[in-house]
Amino acid sequence: MKPITLFPSRSAGLRPGANQATSSRVPGRRPALQSLHHSWARSTASVKVAFVTSLFATLSVTAAEIDYSAAITRLETAVRAEMRDWNIGGISLALTDGARLVHAAGFGEASKDSVFRAGSISKLFNAIAVLQLVEAGKLDLDAPVSALPGATMPVQPFRGATNVTMRQLLSHRSGLQRESPIGSYFDDSEPGLAATCASLRDCVLATQPTAKTRYSNIAPSIAGHIVATLTGMSFEQYQREKILNPLGMNQSAWLKRDVPGGKVITSHMRIADLDGKGGFHHGDAPLFDLGTIPAGNLFTTAPDLAKFLVMLSRSMRGEGVLLRPATLADMWKPQFDDNAGFGLAFVVGKFRGHRTVGHSGAVYGHSTSLVF
After folding, report:
1. Helix, strand counts (H, E) of the chain
2. Is the pLDDT of residue 22 over 60?
3. Is residue 4 part of a domain?
4. H-helix or E-strand spanning residue 361
5. What is the DSSP string of 199-259?
6. Residues 152 and 220 grouped into a single domain
7. Do 224 and 293 meet the contact criterion of CB atoms below 8 Å apart?
8. What's the sign of the alpha-carbon dihedral 306, 285, 169, 153?
9. Less CB within 10 Å around the terminal CB: N or C of the chain?
């Protein structure tokens, strides 16, 4: 997999004329800056500041003796230009060379260790937990989910349709709706994962399994709840012991109460005025735990997510860290489309003829994108 450069899309605040895959911000950007794997996250910081951004990157070269200072200087110049041009409140940046953390820095209102909401990047961690149990022989990706402990599934109304499988849950081909009746994106009651999944009992599948891609937050959450039930741990405990701790992601957490120091970077949102006169005002973005925890509730920092990217790089080099290299390679294969679409949680795409894998997400004032 060759390196590419990716930047936020226009919907994320990029100027008109820049597309999702590449930015025209610095026309003279040199090859050292054109060879970046990265993920970024942003949140609006104040009424007068558009965004706070957290950017994570992996440089394509791995030789420890290479001097990255010139590339870092040019990148930081580009960061400051974006902050100036778009009134961005702050950026948190972490760079790795695929084997180690090369550089971490904070700009403006963000420090290098600011905690952001990762949004649907959470789904990648969730899927890794599922595949760990597959490797251990405790789960079968193609067995009916309804027979598994901890599974509550909607009514299947389609005659002759196949049963929903774990593979379909992870690749958005299960036919389940996007949100659950309880614990959805709009439910701030923090009901927890078990109650969220149980609320599907009176629902009905929206489409036949495998018939179409139907993006869902509750589908991967069912998978995460099954992991918790089979292992006898809470989902958060399993993630901490089997994924976050092994990667050294010590500043990350799955519940806001567990965020080190309890500090998540402040985010604001533009809110429509309801006085009938039109206009908008800015207010604090809501901060609560989603019921669909495995699908979107990860809190993390730039350096911590950089460790996740290092794990992916090491696995590409044949070093199994959390999963066997062959298992991770299977996660990066489109499951129901030949060339693109969803693998097992990872979004599989192409850029300039090269394969890309990753995910993006958004949670109340925070947007994220991880592309490898």
Report:
1. 11, 12
2. no
3. no
4. strand 354-363
5. GGGG-B-SS-TTSS----SHHHHHHHHHHHHHHTS-HHHHHIIIIIHHHT-TT-BSSGGGS
6. yes
7. yes
8. positive
9. N
Going across the sheet that includes 354-363, the strands are 101-108, 90-96, 52-59, 36-43, 366-371, 354-363, 347-351, 341-342
Name the residue type at position 364: Y
Q: What is the residue-wise DSSP string for 7-62?
A: ---GGGTPPTT--SS---S-TT--HHHHSEEEEEEEE--BTTB--EEEEEEEES--
Domain count, the chain: 2
Stretch 183-202: mean pLDDT:
95
Q: What tens digit of pLDDT does each residue of 223-260 get?
A: 999 999 999 999 999 999 999 999 999 999 999 999 98
Instruction: Calculate the average pLDDT of the chain.
Output: 80
Same domain? 75 vs 176: no
Domain limits for position 100: 10-120+249-371
Residues 333 and 300 in one domain: yes
Instruction: Name the residue among 63, 68, 57, 74 with its Cα closest to residue 7.
Output: 57
Question: Is 304 found in the same domain as 321?
Answer: yes
